[in-house]
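Good morning N.,

You mentioned wanting to compare the apo and holo forms, so I went ahead and generated the holo version with magnesium ion. This is what I fed in:
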Amino acid sequence: MLKINNLHASVEDKSILKGINLEIKAGEVHAIMGPNGSGKSTLASVVAGKEEYEVTDGTILLEGEDIEELAAEERAHKGIFLSFQYPVEIPGVSVTNFMKTAINANRKAKGLEDMPANEMLKLIREKSEMLEIDRKFLSRSLNEGFSGGEKKRNEIFQMAMLEPKLAILDETDSGLDIDALRIVANGVNKLKSKDNAVLVITHYQRLLDYIVPDFVHVLYNGKIVKSGGKELAHELEEKGYDWIKEEVNA
Amino acid sequence: MSKYTEDDLREELKTKEYEYGFYTDIKSDTFPIGLNEDIVRAISKKKEEPEWMTQWRLEAFKVWQEMQEPDWANVHYKKPDFQAIAYYSAPTSVDPNKTLDDVDPDLLAMYKKLGISVDEQKKMNNIAMDIVVDSVSVATTFKKTLAEKGIIFMSISEAIKEHPELVKKYLGTVVPQKDNFYAALNSAVFSDGSFCYIPKGVKCPMELSTYFRINQAGTGQFERTLVIADEGSYVSYLEGCTAPSRDENQLHAAVVELIALDDAEIKYSTVQNWFPGNAEGKGGVYNFVTKRGLCEKNAKISWTQVETGSAVTWKYPSCVLKGDNSVGEFYSIAVTNNYQQADTGTKMIHLGKNTKSTIISKGISAGKSQNSYRGLVQVSSRAENARNFSQCDSLLMGNECGAHTFPYIEAKNKTAQIEHEATTSKIGEDQIFYCNQRGIDTEKAIALIVNGFSKDVLNKLPMEFAVEAQKLLEISLEGSVG
Ligand SMILES: Nc1ncnc2c1ncn2[C@@H]1O[C@H](COP(=O)(O)OP(=O)(O)OP(=O)(O)O)[C@@H](O)[C@H]1O
Ligand SMILES: [Mg+2]
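and this is what came out, ligand included:
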């Protein structure tokens, strides 16, 4: 599904990613952990195609295709979805209107007509029920005045609506209360299949109790310095990052 | 036919001659450029106006001669040479040899995006139409419905002839001839425009639109509109048509007067998208408009405008809240792109007691354009408990454009409550990336963000108009980023 080779990226001439190698196969769940500022969100943004980040070396392949030259929206059309660590506010644009625009933009890219209104309504109803989202919420301006947890739940709602091939969840768990965490995680699990993949970025093992990863990677100073199974997350939770930093610096 | 006498025959021949002469006159389009008393008289004569109307124009011309073109607005342009303009051009006639292939392809592309029918496109470019039936029948049914209610809706030239008592009573009462330079000029030379009268207690059953009368009125250089809502009546009036017209006229100076008598309500919506000039700032229309409404007791006037066109816009739809408990509203979206300049806003003049006004202005600037809001809230000493709420929001795209806000407040009564809020924001790269990530391309993303920003005003437009206005916003900002 996703294959990242020796990826180097910088922003404003500051080098942030320094040689990332990562392969995610269809049907897999990967988790990335790592200290603050290590480059996790940067990696997510680079894969999603944010322009201000410059890829200085390496390649990103999506289903074998080099996506380097593709604009962010074209990557989205190919099935990359990013649940933002800090979702952006768009005043005056309702969640529903935003979703409608997004879905139809994706359909257009595939040469399809706009989704008929009743189908759209059905989809919205189904997905909002799954994530226990109040209907009133959908008429509010996107992310404007949403609580931290509401923003995150809304990100997963969008993911559910768009059904991506590769979902990157950047700290989707932060800000969610215990019940919300369970609801959101269940939502993600329901969307999982053998044809898609999930990359979870998190600081806490707790989310991984729900969304169980096949692999856990530690990102430190722009590199993946350790990879393992789900038990690695437990180990990190217990011991923190110092021992890894020591290993790297040794 | 037995009564057909020699005299009758002679009479008829005379008119024939006259018609013929008249016809050649139009065709040769003999009005020389320049403006003087004779030209004003000639315009009035050509329109077969009564003497009082001719005199009214001449009075206006006299004051105009003494006036100076204003230069307080935040716009910079080469002043028109008023002696280099022809003040009467014959009604644009259909050119039998012209086809849509002769029309600028950019313009055709825009029509397509707006979903304008081929017939409508032809109409707007003075091309003969294959099927006229449709629009004619619409206009006819429309006229019938209105007539049943006693509503008068016709060109102002017709009204001057058919309803002189109404025109005479109200013309110039809200915007006097000497009001300002452009209003004086308009009063002297106005070509045509619309007239509308809603009788007492009548609610106009449909949105009145100049759109239905495109072929009759055209968009004159000097349009004059007069809307009178008699006691307890209601009318919603739509001005303009959302299709872009690449008008050759450099200068437009329109005057619109609204009169809402006791308990009446007028909603006046405008979508203006005249040629803004090209991306380099060449060409484009200068739009200097005077729009003002007068509210009597318990009356209400709302101005809603979406301004996307013209190279230079100078426009302040205003309300004179004369009657007690009257209400004035101004909702505006002004978009400037490339080298456009807009200086627009409103004046709310509170004269009566318990008068209320609301101002919501949304300015969107892109490219190298300059967008200014200029608003005056005036409360006279007799206006007890006057209230105003103003909100002026500016949205900037890129670093080369400008947004300016000039709110003026003059309150002479201590009980006045005046609130003013202003914000300036920029479309952020983060917002655009967020949309891109969801599969929405940058142009659509901007349209979405701009529509969200303008929502409070778009919501005030009649449904159909709002949809077209949204498309228009999108088109006028195309290519403004990236
Ligand atoms: N646009 C930018 N301009 C300058 N520096 C940036 C930019 N984006 C990221 N950085 C820097 O790159 C480094 C990595 O940031 P990133 O957001 O990827 O970290 P992270 O691993 O996601 O951290 P956290 O766990 O706190 O979310 C940080 O030092 C950050 O300050
Ligand atoms: Mg981060």
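Chain A is about 40% helix and 30% strand.

Happy to go through it together on a call whenever suits you.

Best,
F.
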